[in-house]
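pasting DUF805 domain-containing protein for the record, 120 residues
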Amino acid sequence: MTFVESIQTCFRKYATFAGRAARPEYWWFVLFLVLTQVVAEMTSPTLSAVFVIATLIPAIAAATRRLHDVDRSGWWQLIGFIPLIGWIVLIYWMCQPGKEPNRFGPAPNSPSQIQDFSQV
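structre below
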């Protein structure tokens, strides 16, 4: 999955908390969020706040789908509220390869999940 495909997928699944997200989908989207947030903050604090509010739900949804890929509930994101240790654990889980078989559905890039965009 490329950088642009990742961003498109995450915004297409704006509030979709079901399913799974592969590592490239999640990490490319995180890179987009960080870079855009830095630029927005340098431009205007108001623009930065609007961007954070607009991307909060897709960021949580993408993280939930990523945790589903490693066979964990999306509620595990709340562990991030534990200072330092929580973030370390979350980053470790987000970097793990997806587990198969999985109770959250087929692998993100399995043949049943790949869409043919030439038909759209």
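The chain has one domain: 3-101.
Helices lie at 3-12, 23-43, 45-69, 85-95.
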